Amino acid sequence: MYIYIYDIYVSEKKYESTIARIETRITDLGLNGKIIRLSVMSSLFETIKNELKKGAKTITVVGNDSILNQAITVIAKLLPANGAFKNVPLGFIPVGKKNNSLANFLGLELEENACDALSARRIKYINLGIANNNHFLTHATIPTTGTILEIDKTYTIEISEPGEIGIVNLLKDEALDNNSGAKNQKGILELSIKTKTAKKYLPLIKEYGERSVFSFKNLTVINKKLPITLDNSLEIPSPINISLAEEKLNIIVGKNHQF
Amino acid sequence: MFNKETENINIKEAETVIGPSIKVKGNFHGQGNIIIEGQVEGSIKTNAFLLIGNKSIITASVEAKNAKVGGIITGNIKIDEYLEIGPSANIKGDIEVKSISINKGAIINGRIVMGAEKSAEK
């Protein structure tokens, strides 16, 4: 059975017509299934766990980056208990433009237009990053200010300029022409540090701005004041240990996915 | 400055890029090409190409297959094949290499052991 789990905010009145269009499209495509509307009292973990036990064929979350990130962590945590769960792909219907940046990486259009990707059922079996106990799909970010990095317990990195640190699992970086997807297949994640100044000292990469890149298997991030943000949605405090998760996930993507 | 060929080295081909605002402390060992424009303390090792930029400050032992270096380097350098030393380079340490090119203006305080001499010593 197809399971559709609606985030709390999509029950707001302003999304009424959007949800109606999504449900019509789902019906037209013959993808009807059970709809579960989350409330403040609901547990996404228990909801997904129960539906997987009942034999769900596809779990689709309807909402934004936040519920997608949560669903990924929930399914990844349930996988060790039952290996058969890995055969259940995770689908995503992004609703609203706010906080919905991951849809683009997955090649999904917004709202009812994402339903076509569910129908096409293009499934990618992908690696996940893990930061402490929380999984992430694409990337994690933290400001450079006050941040100390230790890679594979062999060297540390200090950054003297303000900027942003990105830990990349699946994220195409046009400037570097990197292939993080290929890297993470080897058990490696990528650390990208962007700073705002000192560009003039780096003629070799002038056209891309000031940027540093490292590859790692294990990274420790310490920042006494600022949290790290996973998948643009979940903030967790340091110290944070980041690596590639043992669990992999089947996820439904659009044809224009960026990894 | 490095020659034009060096300046055209593409960041896309580098596995690791250490920018000018970055300071690395410890044993930094990689498999792919490395570009350094910042500071490193400890050791640097790669099986591929190493580029140390003009503004870099390196206090480390350096090992690579091929390298082009500038900046201030304090530590021994061991290159398997070819080493190009740029005019801005200021090296305090011994160099062990198969073949070498030294640009006018470079400062080297240390022994240079070339491939042939190394074989003769053995």
From TrEMBL, chain A:
InterPro entries: ATP-NAD_kinase_N, Diacylglycerol_kinase_cat_dom, NAD/diacylglycerol_kinase_sf. One of its GO terms (molecular function) is kinase activity. Coiled coil: none annotated. This is DAGKc domain-containing protein. It comes from Candidatus Falkowbacteria bacterium GW2011_GWE1_38_31. It comes from the Bacteria. Residues 21-128 form the DAGKc domain.
TrEMBL record, chain B:
InterPro entries: BacA/B. It comes from Candidatus Falkowbacteria bacterium GW2011_GWE1_38_31. Pfam families: Bactofilin. Belongs to the bactofilin family. This is Integral membrane protein CcmA involved in cell shape determination.
